[in-house]
């Protein structure tokens, strides 16, 4: 009788395990949530949707005939709008993972909403380093970039080239403040000075007064702690003021190839920027970029680092689903964190226990027009920051997931 009870208990346990590790609704739904109509529409937008679709196609059922659907929505750079979409996806529409999410305020809100839910948050474009610090979640994986890496690695690279005195033009929300704070901490900790800072609203069109203050500071480096259309406008107007010609260096903390294309290489020439991905780095990145450029609606555009991050994180998540037989974050995220190896788009890659995806970062300088030989041939590599130096050390983030 005891043996029978043990057998029944074991059978029940196995059935329970099989039930918990399953694909909900027999389909894996990945929701691309980003800015489709605003300042991030070129670096993310519908390009991110196509990148996710490419990942689903390359996954090809994972050898198990797993069906994948890609859905998408526009968060309009508003935390309440993004939260409402994510909640509907979670409660009503059976979406299993959310990917992309540029805008740190939106990303942090969704990170809180999804914590301990069944949904995975693939924060491939959310740059707040709080996602792997005080706000870390067992449901979140953060790819591509963050404020710590952007602030520290960019400041370190520029200071190693003589840029000791800084002035910041900073977008007045979580992303910009986080980047400036991280960069300032590094600069002042390594013998440099921050001579001033100007805060501007998201979506600023006129940077004249801010640039005049930066120019008047005589700082060696003017750091643009903003993104998207704000950075483009600032760089264009800096060119009109002749800032770089007068000897000050202009560095963009968060700029992408699409932004450089949008402002034109003549305007952007000499600009320093930090990137995690460049389409023309090697054979793998070029192959991906050419496929991307041929996708519907892309019209020959090369992918941004954020769009590459959507592809890489979506494919990594789907591979974890195939390996575990489950689209639940409790199963998929721990499986993702086992990865150690070479990602085709981001090089040597590790996914840490705090959810941070660690890979090399690169300081580029925008070429002069005469140095560019073909479309989107915009960057020359200045220096490579190895993966183990590019991101905040695991023990220093304050994440409770780190044992």
TrEMBL record:
Residues 1-21 form the signal peptide. InterPro entries: BCAA_transport (IPR051010), Leu-bd (IPR028081), Peripla_BP_I (IPR028082). The keyword Lipoprotein does not apply. It comes from the Bacteria. Keywords: Amino-acid transport, Signal, Transport. The keyword Signal applies. CDD domains: PBP1_SBP-like (cd06327). Belongs to the leucine-binding protein family. This is Branched-chain amino acid transport system substrate-binding protein. It comes from Bradyrhizobium japonicum. The lineage of its organism: Bacteria, Pseudomonadati, Pseudomonadota, Alphaproteobacteria, Hyphomicrobiales.
């Amino acid at each position: 009788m005891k043996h029978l009870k043990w057998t029944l208990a074991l059978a029940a346990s196995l059935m329970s395990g099989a039930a918990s590790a399953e694909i909900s609704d027999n389909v894996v739904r990945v929701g691309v949530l980003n800015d489709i109509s605003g300042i991030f529409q070129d670096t993310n937008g519908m390009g991110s949707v196509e990148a996710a679709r490419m990942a689903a196609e390359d996954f090809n059922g994972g050898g198990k005939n797993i069906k994948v659907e890609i859905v998408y929505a526009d968060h309009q750079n508003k935390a309440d709008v993004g939260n409402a979409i994510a909640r509907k996806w979670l409660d009503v529409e059976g979406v299993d993972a959310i990917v992309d999410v540029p805008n740190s305020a939106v990303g942090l809100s969704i990170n809180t909403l999804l914590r301990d839910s069944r949904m995975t948050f693939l924060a491939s474009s959310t740059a707040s380093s709080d996602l792997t610090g005080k706000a870390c979640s067992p449901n979140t994986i953060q790819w591509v970039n963050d404020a710590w890496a952007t602030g520290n690695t960019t400041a370190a690279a520029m200071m190693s080239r003589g840029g000791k005195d800084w002035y910041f033009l900073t977008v007045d929300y979580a992303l910009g403040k986080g980047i400036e704070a991280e960069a300032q901490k590094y600069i002042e900790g390594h013998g440099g000075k921050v001579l001033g800072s100007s805060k501007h609203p998201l979506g600023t069109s006129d940077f004249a007064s801010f640039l005049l203050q930066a120019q008047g500071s005589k700082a060696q480096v003017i750091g643009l702690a903003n993104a998207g259309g704000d950075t483009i406008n600032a760089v264009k107007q800096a060119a009109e003021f002749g800032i770089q010609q007068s000897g000050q260096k202009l560095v963009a903390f968060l700029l992408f190839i699409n932004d450089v294309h949008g402002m034109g290489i003549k305007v952007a020439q000499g600009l320093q920027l930090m990137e995690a991905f460049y389409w023309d780095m090697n054979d793998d990145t070029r192959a991906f970029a050419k496929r991307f450029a041929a996708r519907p609606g892309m019209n020959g555009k090369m992918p941004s680092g954020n769009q590459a991050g959507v592809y890489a994180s979506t494919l990594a998540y789907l591979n974890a689903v195939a390996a575990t037989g489950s689209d639940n974050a409790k199963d998929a995220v721990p499986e993702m964190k086992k990865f150690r190896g070479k990602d085709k788009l981001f090089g040597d890659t590790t996914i840490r226990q705090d959810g941070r995806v660690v890979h090399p970062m690169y300081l580029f300088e925008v070429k002069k027009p005469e140095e560019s030989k073909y479309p989107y041939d915009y960057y020359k590599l200045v220096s490579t920051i190895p993966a183990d130096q590019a991101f905040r050390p695991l023990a220093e983030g304050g994440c409770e997931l780190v044992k």
